[in-house]
Design goal:
Lipocln_cytosolic_FA-bd_dom, Lipocalin_CS, Lipocalin, Lipocalin/cytosolic fatty-acid binding domain-containing protein, disordered C terminus, mainly beta, 9 strands, Calycin, eight-stranded antiparallel β-barrel
């Protein structure tokens, strides 16, 4: 793993172009996601006040589980793509605000794939507008993550179906996945 140098973050991101659906191609496992999650994706929508509505979805045991939140620029005066994301947990009784960093470390000029992380290097996501990514692009993003000091051996590829599932399928409305994730299941 590379040394903990300052991270290089995308500058001048066009948030309007960044909005829409992104599929998780790979990530570091997180206690905030089901361990057996598949078809994981995020959908972003710019709101009138300049914040971003965030919808994170995954499918666990055949059911759609999701959490909604809000993202905003960490420093409104900076041109760096450093955002904060706020979710309320647990999803079945959303009372505790959880705020995390969402730093866009790489973004192609057509806004088709991205590398997203945060300063502690505990979380990392490789995202794509499509459910699958070319191996060459994937390997370049993994190498970029390594250069930014991430232990890329922790990356876990996310199974994606093609076509992706619809949102109107069965849902986990009780947040059982969240309780299981606390206990490492």
């Amino acid at each position: 793993m590379a040394s903990k140098k300052a991270m290089e973050v995308v500058k001048g991101i066009d948030l309007k172009r960044y909005m829409g659906r992104w599929y998780e191609i790979a990530s570091f496992p997180s206690m905030f996601q089901p361990k057996n999650g598949v078809n994981t994706r995020a959908t972003y929508a710019l709101k009138e006040d300049g914040t971003v509505h965030v919808l994170n979805e995954t499918w666990s045991d055949g059911k759609r589980v999701f959490i909604e939140g809000t993202a905003y620029k960490a420093d409104p005066n900076s041109d760096e793509a450093k955002l904060k994301v706020k979710f309320y947990v647990p999803p079945f009784l959303p009372i505790i605000p959880i705020v995390g960093d969402y730093w866009v470390l790489y973004l192609d000029e057509d806004y088709q794939y991205a590398l997203v992380g945060q300063p502690s290097r505990k979380y990392l996501w490789i995202l794509c507008r499509n459910t699958h990514m070319d191996d060459e692009i994937y390997n370049r993003l993994v190498e970029k993550a390594r250069e930014e000091g991430y232990d890329v051996t922790k990356l876990h590829k996310t199974p994606q179906s093609d076509p992706p599932p619809e949102e109107d399928g069965p849902q986990d409305t009780k947040g059982i996945w969240w309780i299981k994730s606390i206990f490492g299941k």
